[in-house]
From TrEMBL, chain B:
InterPro entries: ABC_transp_permease (IPR001851), LivM-like (IPR043428)
Subcellular location: Cell membrane
Pfam families: BPD_transp_2 (PF02653)
Name of the protein in its database record: Branched-chain amino acid ABC transporter permease
Its membrane topology: Multi-pass membrane protein
Organism: Paracoccus salipaludis
Principal localisation: membrane
Length: 228, 323
């Protein structure tokens, strides 16, 4: 296996006739923390959308461990080992925190969930993963709470937890610290550093302090293009 | 989860309904109709309440079941259990097709597509009158017999339908409790996230359609045997509307709400039509009142009453559900 987990060549995305992303060549090293920085509207989130399959690439190719995944659907990419968190918190707001994570863990084996006679609790490994993520994120005290009623910081942590629960090889975090208090930010930094030991982490962040602190590599984007 | 939403409680309430209807109603026909619509409405609820899909296609599946029973029983004397199973399979197949095509669009366009299919199937039934009997429908649909005894008396047929209803209701409770059902809820809550964590959401919606279509067609077949006819009106868009209205009145947050919705509507219609020929007007007013004041339907009312009387502590208020 090569040392590169995720690679793009000439990647481009169009929204209508607007080039949100163009000619992006990236090579993300395995088990590293790779930061993406750039001003608002630079196309960072769009890059994540393209990497996870939420939007189709209009040009170029994407490879995961050397395998071409350019046209692979978003849910198939989860099974191949790519998971993400969202810049704007996107949870199941009327379900409990634990159920949110159980679903995220189940999403790795969705065909099982098509059986209408199988009880959710029978997938003990999904429950175990959910509990593991809960303790890793120190959310045990609120595990039974409805996600929509959690504090902002807790929701942001859960947002990242949803990506971890998929047991990915490559994890994409879109501004996980946005809107967080200072203590939460410290904990999130630790978490990302820790994730980088056995995951490939791609990480969008505005706070340069954090970026410099935990990144192995930094890519700068502007106007849909990669600068450095 | 609200204590009344526990699966055992939901099924217990269904059993109670079956036991109580004969005590309060003199008409076995009306009681049977309530149970048939209760299962059909619960199947609609699987789409509306659990998956967040407002389908105007339910009348198609109901009508398909009606015609399947009408044709098989008046022309070929197929055994009734086979007819019911066959109707369910046919309903599932057609719902799969309708669902597969309709969920390609979202929101209003999805609703429009289901409406369009509803019109399409109606005109097909109207046009192929050689098969469906057109305007007249298929007359003389017999009721089933059991061990040589014909279940012609309304209350004997009621018993037959009651057993079917409980079986279907149990299946639907199981479906909603399953990991499948809980994934449907996740899709309703946030489809984008459900896809992002790996669920092929279209497939789940299609399966929800298939189950809903199977149950609805099953109910349609039972209905044909109840009224002795397979009428064109069962596949009209009016039937779709009726099923949706009952679902919304009952409240889409629990399966038993659908039983309440069907019962409430049919009993009210029965009572009002006896006192005033223009009863539909009054029914319209009742619907307006429900829409204005009972946002979570009759079931929401039941939950609030339960909390007020038995729990004496406000349950954590859930944000009103949006559809
Ligand atoms: N769905 C969309 N349709 C059309 N244009 C879009 C869409 N999403 C994003 N854009 C545009 O694409 C450009 C890149 O947006 P993107 O969200 O990727 O930027 P970003 O680098 O993540 O910015 P931020 O730091 O504000 O999150 C912006 O000009 C934005 O307005
Ligand atoms: Mg962004």
């Amino acid at each position: 296996m090569t040392d590169i987990a995720l690679q793009t060549r000439g990647l481009g995305v169009k929204y209508g006739s607007f080039n949100a992303l163009a000619d992006v060549d990236l090579a993300i090293r395995r088990n590293s923390v790779h930061s993406i920085i750039g001003p608002n509207g630079a196309g960072k989130t769009t890059l994540f959308h393209a990497l996870t399959g939420r939007v189709r690439a209009s040009a170029g190719r994407i490879e995961l461990d050397g395998q071409d995944i350019t046209t692979t659907s978003d849910d198939d990419r989860v099974r191949l080992g790519i998971a993400r968190s969202f810049q704007v918190t996107s949870l199941f707001p009327n379900l409990t925190l634990r159920e949110n994570l159980r679903l995220a863990a189940q999403g790795r084996t969705p065909w099982q969930a098509l059986a209408p006679w199988r009880r959710a609790e029978s997938n003990t490994s999904a429950l175990a993963i959910a509990d593991e993520v809960i303790s890793r994120l120190e959310l045990g005290a609120v595990a039974g709470r409805i996600a929509g009623e959690l504090s902002h910081g807790q929701q942001r942590r859960l947002e990242v937890g949803m990506a971890i629960a998929a047991r990915p090889r490559v994890i994409l975090l879109d501004e996980p610290t946005s809107g967080m208090g200072i203590d939460d930010i410290e904990a999130m930094k630790e978490l990302i550093r820790d994730l980088g030991r056995d995951h490939t982490v791609l990480f969008i962040e505005h706070n340069m302090g954090i970026v410099m602190n935990i990144s192995d590599m930094v890519t700068v984007m502007r106007l849909g293009r990669k600068l450095v | 989860m609200h204590p009344l939403d526990k699966p055992a409680v939901q099924f217990g309430l269904a059993v109670l309904t079956v036991a109580v209807l004969p005590l309060f109603l003199t008409s076995g026909i009306l009681a049977t109709e309530i149970l048939i619509f209760a299962m059909v409405v619960a199947a609609c609820n699987l789409l509306l309440g659990y998956t967040g899909l407002l389908s105007f296609g339910q009348g198609i599946f109901f009508g398909v079941g009606t015609y399947a029973a009408g044709i098989c029983l008046t022309r070929w004397q197929v055994p009734v259990p086979l007819v019911l199973a066959g109707s369910a399979i046919l309903g599932a197949a057609i719902a799969t097709l309708v669902g597969w095509l309709s969920i390609r669009r979202q929101g209003v366009y999805f609703v429009m597509l289901t409406l369009a299919f509803s019109q399409l199937f109606y005109f097909m039934a109207y046009t192929f009158s050689g098969i469906t009997g057109g305007d007249n429908g298929l007359l003389g649909v017999p009721r089933p017999s059991l061990g040589g005894a014909e279940l012609n008396a309304p209350w004997s047929y009621y018993t037959y339908v009651a057993v079917c209803f409980l079986a279907i209701f149990a299946i639907l409770v199981m479906v909603t409790q399953s990991t499948f059902g809980r994934t449907l809820i996740a899709i309703r809550e946030n489809e984008g996230r459900a896809a992002a964590i790996g669920f092929p959401t279209r497939l789940f919606k299609i399966e929800a359609f298939a189950i809903s279509g199977a149950v609805t067609a099953f109910g349609g077949a039972l209905h044909a045997m109840l009224i002795g006819v397979a009428p064109l009106s069962n596949i009209e868009h009016h039937t779709s509307e009726l099923i949706l209205i009952m679902t919304i009145i009952g409240g889409s947050s629990s399966l038993f709400g659908s039983v309440l919705g069907a019962g409430f509507y049919l009993l009210l219609a029965d009572a009002l039509s006896a006192v005033w020929p223009r009863w539909l007007l009054l029914l319209g007013l009742v619907l307006v009142a429900v829409a204005l004041f009972l946002q979570r339907g009759l079931w929401g009312l039941v939950e609030r009453l339960y909390d007020a009387v038995l729990r004496r502590e406000p349950s954590p208020t859930k944000p009103a559900e949006e559809h």
